[in-house]
NAD(P)H-hydrate epimerase (Lupinus albus), 464 residues
Amino acid sequence: MGSFDSFSYLTQREAVEVDELLMGPLGFSVDQLMELAGLSVATSIAEVYKPSDYSRVLTICGPGNNGGDGLVAARHLHHFGYKPLVCYPKRTQNPLYAGLVTQLEALSIPFLSVEDLPSDLSNDFDIVVDAMFGFSFHGSPRPPFDDLVHRFVSLHNQIGQKRSVIISIDIPSGWHVEEGDVDGTGIKPDMLVSLTAPKLCAKKFIGPHHFLGGRFVPPAIVEKYKLVLPPYSGTSMCVRIGKPPQIDISALRENYISPEFLEEQVEADPINQFRKWFDDALAAGLKEPNAMALSTAGKDGKPSSRIVLLKGVDKDGFVWYTNFESRKARELSENTHASLLFYWDDLNRQVRVEGSVQKVSDEKSKQYFHSRPRGSQIGAIVSKQSSVVPGTGRHVLHQEYKELEQKYADQSLIPKPKNWGGYRLIPNAFEFWQGQKSRLHDRLRYSPHEVNDQRLWKVERLAP
């Protein structure tokens, strides 16, 4: 993210030239660019407006490439869990666009005529996507698009009532590509998704959400036009431009939608129930589902928490590895009671585990240590965890790392440090939490009890 002046903006002529280069010597086809653009728009929408709260999406498509971007975006939004509808007044027989229509019809995505649209779009739609005109458009919109532009303007002017969110693709329809909303009477989108690079008019955009999409700009174009664009994160197809809007933290809330979690459905053994949920987290493709918050407290009673990685679970408990001179290790030496918390956001689930902690055997620690990548083994030796790094900070760590890397360059066995090894939390309480509507969450607690000298687990529902 950065300020408006941090990034490059294209004039109309430059935007046309870039498209010509992409679809000429650089080998892109129009359908490739349209697919990438539509995906960028859909992912930008999903970044801000979740389908649980903004499911009903109307995309109004023009006859050109901007309309094609809208058709592709509608398809992706359908697969993202939204309920898109499309208004496409001026259809073309071009096979590319006809194919996009066929794809949407195969998904049973409804098409509405202009006459079918409600007089007040806010009554029927949470989001309205403006995919009518792009940077190559000149002049004033003609029927029926002049009326449709007016409907977008009317949406923004609704005061004192919930209205549809307005998303514009690349250029708010009716704006001048370079000068923006010249007379101040045009569409005022809540989100603008610029494609390839922002156009000059985007400097006049004052809505809360500006994204850049179209992660396909080759170095030749970047160099020719001296483009400065924000970096994309990971595998994302969009990136926010500028700072996100100021948000009232107290208003942030999620209305969870989950299947019921009932007592008669759970495993009798909480370890088996944990494995079941952990397998669900793995199957859902969640990032680091083995990440857990470990909370400890020393003899002074002051708690501390940090994220560590689960490295083993069996009938005897939960295992992780660390430096025995770290803060958590010092606190565990004074107070062996600790708790773990797993949080799986996309599944609306948490698992809390409480118990006492003991070290695993040195042999088991050695076995795990030597299963790690050699770089991680060296890093464990270099890092005197939780201590103050002397001198010039990271440079000291990197220097020590390089020295050890050279020392063990012959691939000889790297000895496990004596001050490094594993801990096991032996559980004496579990709580499984699943988010539900209206804060009526499911909370099932497992507590141990003895029956005929056998340790069993009692399951009780806690008030949310």
Notes: DSSP finds eleven helices and 17 strands in the chain. Residues 245 and 261 are 36 Å apart (CA to CA). The first strand starts at residue 56 and ends at 61. The chain has two domains: 4-251, 263-370+416-461.
